[in-house]
């Protein structure tokens, strides 16, 4: 059971200026703002450990944030576990990825491969009624989620809500990707997984975020902010304001509102700390602009037909990781990846490629890029 120290005067979101490394004093300010009763309680710290990416790539949560959060929790007497389920089939690679991202060394004995034990839980979802969740998630008294703010080719952004998709062990993600292909459909699933166990505190690493073709092949974008809140939906609402995107245009927030999980506007948020919208934050080419949204809504089938992926042979090292991750086995290595007709444009291969070698091709690539900027 979760124990929270409620304070009616606390803000929805606390924001502070930050650089790397993120120090413990910064995290102390967040815990002062959002107190948690953690003594002798099991606390799961959930960073974004997407794949084999070093911290300078701005793909994974910065290890200094994870380290400082763990130290502050330990000082308060918490029993801390740090873990995530990276990738789609990442059971065996879990520890290797944790080491690659610098997070394993940052938290030492607190790291755990949370993919090793899983429990079947009911999912309120129109395409699937149960999923395998890491048992560590269900056994924790408290969850502190540490997302990295990034764009996402399939889900538009990945931040507070989306970080909880890592509750699912690898094979389950594969299944859900193959059941719900389109961006909005998949975002429904994300919100359903989030609803299994919303985190108790979300602290976002937006010191260096990712814009453009995220969540792994985009461009690092320095924002210089660390922000936090108890309600991850409100944290994501703030994110929309920060990156200058109308919240109703983000599927995850739109769906959260439909489900009764969001009743505020950015203007109504109680925010502690100074901030202003980031200028010209680049959304992915798949993000639908005001013009593109109407066009894409009308001609959705054309888009799917027109969207193709290809590997840049100058960047690709023929490692085959993309083929292993594809949920519908649409990639054949020959010797470079070849993308077959069965592709459901889930962008998992694009996400997992450590070399940013996969990009869009096909007829829709130019209009997408144009519309993404309008
Ligand atoms: S595209 Fe990326 S993941 Fe796929 S084989 Fe090439 S380097 Fe590996
Ligand atoms: S080829 Fe890539 S985008 Fe297509 S289904 Fe496989 S992983 Fe998804």
CATH architecture of the largest domain: 3-Layer(aba) Sandwich
According to DSSP, the number of beta strands is 15
Query: Can you list the ligands bound to this structure?
Result: iron/sulfur cluster
Whole-number radius of gyration? 19 Å
Give start-end ranges of low-pLDDT stretches. 1-6
Enter the CATH topology name of the largest domain: Rossmann fold
The fraction of residues assigned to DSSP E strands is 15-25%
End-to-end span in angstroms? 47 Å
Q: How would you characterize the overall build of this protein?
A:
This protein has 374 residues and is of the alpha/beta class. The protein has 2 domains: 13-272, 3-Layer(aba) Sandwich (Rossmann fold), CATH 3.40.50; 290-373, 2-Layer Sandwich (Alpha-Beta Plaits), CATH 3.30.70. The protein is built from 14 helices and 15 strands. The chain has helices spanning 24-33, 63-75, 94-100, 103-107, 135-139, 170-179, 183-196, 232-243, 251-258, 290-298, 300-306, 321-325, 348-352, 365-373, and strands spanning 13-17, 42-47, 79-82, 118-122, 130-134, 142-146, 148-152, 156-158, 201-211, 219-229, 271-272, 308-311, 331-333, 337-339, 358-361. Strands 1, 2, 3, 6, 7, 8, 9, 10 and 11 form a 9-stranded mixed β-sheet that branches. The chain has a two-stranded antiparallel ribbon with strand order 4-5. β7 and β8 (156-158) form a beta hairpin. α1 (24-33) crosses α2, α7 (183-196) packs across α9 (251-258) and α10 packs across α11 (300-306). The radius of gyration is 19 Å and the shape is globular. The protein binds iron/sulfur cluster (2 copies).
């Amino acid at each position: 059971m979760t124990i929270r120290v409620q304070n009616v005067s606390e803000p929805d979101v606390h924001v502070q200026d930050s650089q790397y490394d993120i120090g413990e004093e910064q995290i102390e300010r967040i815990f002062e703002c959002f107190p948690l009763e953690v003594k002798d309680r099991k606390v799961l710290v959930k960073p974004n450990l997407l794949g084999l990416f070093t911290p300078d790539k701005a793909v994974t949560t910065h290890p200094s944030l994870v380290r400082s959060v763990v130290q502050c929790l330990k000082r308060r007497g918490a029993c801390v576990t740090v873990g995530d389920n990276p990738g789609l089939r990442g059971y065996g690679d879990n520890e290797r990825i944790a080491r690659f991202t610098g997070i394993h060394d940052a938290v030492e004995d607190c790291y755990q491969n949370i993919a090793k034990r899983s429990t079947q839980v009911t999912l309120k979802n129109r395409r699937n009624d149960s999923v395998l969740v890491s048992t560590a998630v269900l056994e924790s008294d408290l969850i502190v989620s540490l997302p990295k703010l990034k764009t996402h080719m399939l889900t538009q952004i990945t931040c507070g809500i989306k970080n909880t998709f890592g509750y699912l062990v690898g094979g389950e993600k594969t299944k859900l990707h193959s059941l719900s292909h389109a961006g909005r459909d998949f975002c429904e699933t994300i919100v359903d997984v989030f609803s299994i166990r919303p985190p108790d505190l979300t602290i976002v690493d937006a010191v260096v975020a990712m814009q453009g073709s995220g969540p792994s092949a985009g461009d690092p974008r320095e924002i210089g902010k660390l922000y936090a809140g108890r309600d991850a939906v409100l944290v994501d609402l703030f994110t929309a304001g920060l990156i200058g995107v109308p919240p109703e245009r983000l599927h995850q927030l739109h769906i959260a509102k439909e489900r009764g999980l969001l009743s505020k506007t950015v203007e109504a948020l109680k925010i502690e700390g100074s901030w202003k919208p980031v200028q010209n934050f680049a959304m992915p080419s798949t993000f639908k602009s005001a013009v593109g949204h109407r066009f894409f809504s009308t001609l959705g089938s054309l888009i799917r037909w027109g969207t193709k992926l290809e590997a840049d042979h100058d960047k690709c090292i023929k490692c085959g990781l993309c083929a292993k991750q594809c949920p519908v086995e649409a990639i054949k290595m020959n010797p470079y990846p070849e993308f077959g007709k069965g592709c459901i444009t889930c962008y998992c291969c694009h996400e997992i490629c450590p070399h940013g070698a996969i990009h869009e091709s096909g007829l829709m690539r130019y209009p997408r890029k144009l519309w993404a900027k309008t």
